[in-house]
Amino acid sequence: MRGATKSSVILDIGVLVFREGLECVLVLAAITAGLTGDQERYRRPVAIGAGIGFGATLITWSVAVRILADLAKKVSALALQAATGLLAIVVLLIVMNWFFHKLYWTGWISLHNRRKRSLLEETTKQSGRRNVLLGFALLGFSSFYREGVEVVLFLQSYRLRLGNEPVLYGVLLGSILSAAVAALTFVAHRRLPYKRMLVLTGALLAVVLFVMVGEQAQEMQLAHWLPTTSIPGLVDRIPSWAGLWFSIFPTVETLTGQTLALAVVLGSYFLAQRQLRSTIRI
Predict the structure, then answer these.
(1) Nearest to 226 by CA among 252, 264, 258
(2) How far apart are CA 195 and CA 213, in angstroms?
(3) Domain map of the chain by residue range?
(4) Is the pLDDT of residue 248 over 70?
(5) How far is 158 from 85, CA to CA, in rounded Å?
(6) CB proximity list for 154: less than 8 A, separation 6 or greater
(7) For residue 48, which of 121, 115, 133 has the smallest C-alpha distance?
(8) By the 8 A CB rule, do 126 and 7 touch?
(9) What DSSP string describes the chain?
């Protein structure tokens, strides 16, 4: 397993799945907030919609596996691994882009809240209870399925390089943690420090991104998509464990890619914080 141990890969996958699960819980919590008394019955279609979203995610996984299996017959394994690895990094950069994430999730949650209010207004009209139940089910479905698609796209690179077993264990780890948060949120009605949890998982994913970019750059070098420019002064100074655990290699391309990736993540974080402070002053 080049550039990573099995346990570190399982942890990487578990962190990402947990992060996506946490965001799903936040959206579902926003949808179900205030649904008490007579409106509490609308929680059930939201849960059913989320369950259907889970099933649709499994179908999407199957479709993605089949598509990549067909592509494997037409292109080299190394090129396919490099392409899926690049896709995984794009997904991770979207998840890790704090400025985009702030705007993205604010708009996404606001859209769901507006739709919820619209559905609740329809309950006072003669438009039919079925349409309202279907609308809440669709809210639950979209909340889960969007996160599921991101996870499916991200995991294809790991599956091609390492097989199904570490992917399965990583997904189980992330799912268990997500289920625990969901139970505390919806069953125990506990208010968790969601913002701190997002920041913590974000920091862990920054390490995952750093490692993935190094591995991906090396994959692209092996596939001859990128040149390999060695840095003579670092060849003997970088220990072997740095390449094994953190994919740090003495080439211009790998180190530049890792530096740029971290710069994007840190830059988006400070930009989001600056915008938040400006908003507070206003």
Answers:
(1) 252
(2) 26
(3) 6-281
(4) yes
(5) 8
(6) 16, 88, 91, 92
(7) 133
(8) no
(9) -TTS-HHHHHHHHHHHHHHHHHHHHHHHHHHHTT--GGGGGGHHHHHHHHHHHHHHHHHHHHHHHHHHHHHHTTS-HHHHHHHHHHHHHHHHHHHH-HHHHHHHHHHHHHHHHHHHHHHHHHTTTTS-HHHHHHHHHHHHHHHHHHHHHHHHHHHHHHHHHH-HHHHHHHHHHHHHHHHHHHIIIIIS-----HHHHHHHHHHHHHHHHHHHHHHHHHHHHHTTSS---B-HHHHTTS-HHHHHHH---SBHHHHHHHHHHHHHHHHHHHHHHHHHHHHHH-
The pTM is what? 0.85
In this prediction, residue 191 has a pLDDT band, given cuts at 50, 70 and 90, of confident
Spatial CB neighbours of 82, under 8 Å, sequence gap ≥ 6: 216, 219, 220, 222, 223, 225
pLDDT at 3: 43
**What is the distance between the terminal CA atoms of the chain, rounded to a whole angstrom?**
52
pLDDT-derived band at 2, boundaries 50, 70, 90: very low
* Amino acid at the residue 27: V
